[in-house]
Amino acid sequence: MTDEITIPADLLPADGRFGSGPSKVPTEAMDALSGVGKSVMGTSHRKSAVKNQVGRLRRGLAELFALPEGYEVVLGVGGTTAFWEVAVFGLVEDKAQTASFGEFGSKFAKAIQIAPHLSDPTVVTAEPGSAAYLNAEDGVDVYATPHNETSTGVAVDVTRVAAEGALMLHDATSAAAGLPVDMAASDCYYFAPQKGLASDGGLWIALMSPAAIERAERIAASGRYIPAFLDLKTAIDNSRKDQTYNTPAVATVVLAAEQVDALNAAGGLDAAAKRCAESAGALYSWADSREFASPFVTEERLRSNVVVTIDFEGVDAAEIAKALRANGVLDTEPYRKLGRNQLRIATYPAVDPSDAVKLTRAIDYVVERLS
Fold first, then answer.
1. Model pLDDT for residues 106-122, shown as the tens digit of each residue
2. What is the value of pTM for the model shown?
3. Which of 29, 118, 144, 291 is deepest in the core (most CB within 10 A)?
4. At residue 194, what are phi and psi to the nearest 5 degrees?
5. How would CATH label the architecture of 28-264?
């Protein structure tokens, strides 16, 4: 039986959490949360104790991403799914062009398609495992693409379409804090904190350029109907006060701030990206060297350093994941809608590269017993 396979302790990662989101939360961050818990949990989010944590997170993110002058860190309640709707109401004036090469890109495209106040978007598609690219188009005022497609493990560079007056939006849900980015190439780099920021869910975070802020303020003043919960102008105004319009998940704020401070202390985004590349590289080189495994993303330049997807042949990946889980190695299952015989492994900054190496040894051990 698969769940009766006992992997030797010396082959197991010290921390077996490899989920692509929610992701591993470091023990140090949990200890820090416990230390401040009584001062921030169960108290008003508009008082100084909580506002100080929000401000700490905003300052830390501005440092981590080396935000250009005039860019602001904006927060709201609800996660990336909520922010797609926020963008539909508050950033797209009429027509968008979106890149869809996995689940996250397709969901944002659909949100725009069904919005009754917007024109039909142009959706540039590519098969999962490859990438779609945006191109300048007349009449488009927003260009949007994932930076990293969480469902497939495809990453593309953050670049700007040469289109005067249009905004560039990048879904960084799983890319943030783990992949390099030149923020000047994006007007809205948005994400949730339960992946690279090693926190919990419940918030969206957007790094916004002056042009994006001006667009949000102009749309808000135009008389367009915008639900209060999704009003980007309201989120901007509250963020400038180090608070959110609705009561935030305070624990999420504290955990994210801990991770961001730790990353800044360890060398910032460059060091974090290097750490992720080391972990991912160990997994890709291992898969390339095995007859039963291969990277799902065939083009090396598109292979993500934060979400690694590996196909298997001649052995059931679901059984591998089941055996790993029975031994405390968690959340290596593939994205459900892809339906592939593969594992999906997160290599966010919180993951120790040595644990990624140990994971390959644990998989070898399981495969040998399943073959």
1. 999 999 999 999 999 99
2. 0.97
3. 144
4. -90, 15
5. 3-Layer(aba) Sandwich (3.40)
